[in-house]
Design a protein that fits this description.
Elements lengths: L8 E5 L5 H5 L3 E6 L2 E7 L13 H17 L6 E12 L7 E12 L2 E9 L5 E16 L3 E5 L9
Parallel strand pairs: 1-8
Antiparallel strand pairs: 2-3, 3-5, 4-7, 5-6, 6-7
Length: 157
């Protein structure tokens, strides 16, 4: 068994893919002004037993898209986490690249609400996703460094 943490690592920028997002081959197309667009190819490693894209991969893409939308409106290195999600699967994914379009819908104190719609290459809606995030009381991330602290950079997709 490998190292099970806690982990320290470096990221390219505040708005960039972390190790998990890179594992799923996500790409940040846009992240600014409370909106984000991310894409992810349906590779074999993301298939479930019936040959469709695994729902967990789709939810991960939607969740990450909302995260990037939030990162575009909070101070760099703000520590926040998902506390609630709701998802509705609308259509199966059999091939191609899926795209998540996300936006921050509301901010109340330390709570941020967001939603995302994931679509396939034919523009079929695949997944509707909504979530709530909470900014931590100790709001500064520790143990992670960012080589480019520019909050709106998409360098290192």
């Amino acid at each position: 068994m490998g190292d099970t943490g806690p982990h320290q690592f470096e990221m390219d920028a505040w708005i960039s893919c972390a190790p998990f997002e890179r594992l799923l081959n996500m790409t940040i197309e846009k992240a600014r002004d409370g909106e984000a667009v991310l894409s992810m190819p349906f590779e074999l490693k993301l298939a479930q037993g019936a040959g469709l894209m695994h729902g967990g991969a789709l939810i991960s893409l939607a969740d990450t898209a909302v995260v990037m939308a939030i990162k575009s409106v909070v101070q760099p290195q703000t520590h926040f986490a998902t506390i609630s999600v709701e998802s509705r699967f609308l259509y199966p994914v059999k091939k191609g690249v899926v795209t998540a379009k996300a936006r921050v819908t509301k901010r109340t104190g330390r709570h941020l609400h967001g939603e995302a719609m994931v679509a396939d290459e034919e523009k079929n809606d695949i997944l509707h996703f909504s979530s709530v995030f909470k900014i931590a009381k100790d709001a500064q991330i520790k143990g992670i460094t960012f080589t480019d602290p520019e909050p709106n950079s998409t360098k290192g997709k």
